[in-house]
Amino acid sequence: MFSVLTEIQDHFKIGDDEGGLLQTAFVLSYMICAPLFGYLGDRYSRKWIMVLGVSLWSTTTLLGSYMNEFGWFITFRALVGIGEASYSTIAPTIISDLFVGEMRSRMLAMFYFAIPVGSGFGYIVGAKMASIMNSWVWSLRVTPVLGAIAVVLIIMLRDPQRGQSEGTHHMQTTSYKEDVKAIMRNHSFMLSTAGFTCVAFVTGALAWWGPKFIHLGLISQPGNEHVTLNEVSLIFGAITMTTGIIGVPLGSYLSQRFNVKYVKSDPYICAAGLLLSSPLLVGALFMVRENIYATYALIFFGELALNLNWAIVADILLYVVVPTRRSTAEAFQILISHAFGDAGSPYFVGVMSEAIKRVIRVGADALSTDSYLSVEPSRSIAVLSQLAENSTVAMLQDSPPVEDSPLVQFRALQYALFSTCFVEILGGVFFLVTAFYIDRDRSRVEAVVLGCQLELSESSASDGNGTDDGQRSPIGGPAGTSGSSSIGFSAASTVAAS
């Protein structure tokens, strides 16, 4: 949808604020439903929860493309988020139950690099389909096909026991209230989630407004009137996809490389990525109308540094939270990071953009009048004071939509997008503080896992036949079990690939 945002705005006759609200509606339903799927994922069959969720995602995406009223369109956009929540919450916990140690980090990198890569691929496919079919709706109608493929792959998956890879699959689950309390007292988890929230804020804003901002910067210059948004979206998508392919595995590699000697290296790598990305994106915002090639280069390295975080943050969650609480922790992280991150950032940037447009309009009208030009210097302060008052009134009133020039739209979006650079610096600070607690919280989980393994060994020895019939979960099977305990290499590959 990012690649056809301008066409959607033209079709429904909406401004930047309502355009940003489309993404906000999606993320709001996504984050609200995440805790529900976290609760279910720690207790019931994860495979079938994901099958239902992805099926809902595909169906609502397709139906939304047939809606001609903005109210219905945004409703179906919100329903898409429910399906997204099921998969994003549960899939990482399945990977954690299949792999451990460095192999888990590698598999998580394979999983999370699909987020920026899929986003970039969406720009390319969406823009191309809209161009071929000469209608933006076809950018939405192609994605359900990919959703159907995902459903088939998930059905082929055999759900492993929770904690299987660490030998803690007989660990008893606790109440949801106890899980939430334990998670909220986990300093490493809460601080890394705050840092990741800043990543989500920036990612959401750039993904939604990046192509349109670059396009406006180009067409506001003489000689570039022929450049289309689809062309810009293709390039932006290729950059996003490439930085995901490189950045996510690079972050995982750096983590594995430095964790051997420095146990606090993970939060430091995340902090470095955010603090490096901020000045690069500032440069890109300034360079759009000066040198487009330099702009794309700065965006490339800025997104590359930003993408270092994805796999590392997921790995931090898995090694500072015990196995029976990981789905709940994933859901909690999704709720926080999206509630204060990309749920609001597209809308926030859109509202800022519309407000700045009004200020520019009033300012341009006042400063271009002959009366202002003839004002004596002694009265100029009074005139400027009146200008500021008029600007404030204009922002508070519901004025009819005005067709702004590309340059005005560009400037408004440019000033609004500067907010993302400040958020990146804040995220870097959160990760630096995480480093103070991460060694302690990681050791606590390792102690719990070791204790469970020793208890299981003692129980097996007392049985004399290597089985443990005493530990049963509240839902009727071995604790944490929701399917067959055997799993083959092919199923593991399926999870990693999907």
From TrEMBL:
Keywords attached to this entry: Membrane, Transmembrane, Transmembrane helix, Transport
TM helices/strands, residue ranges: 20-41, 48-66, 72-95, 107-126, 138-157, 189-209, 234-255, 267-288, 294-322, 415-438
Pfam families documented for this protein: MFS_1
Low complexity bias: start-end ranges: 481-498
Gene3D superfamilies assigned to the protein according to its UniProt record, in alphabetical order: MFS general substrate transporter like domains
SUPFAM superfamilies, per the entry: MFS general substrate transporter
Official protein name in the record: Major facilitator superfamily (MFS) profile domain-containing protein
Organism: Anopheles christyi
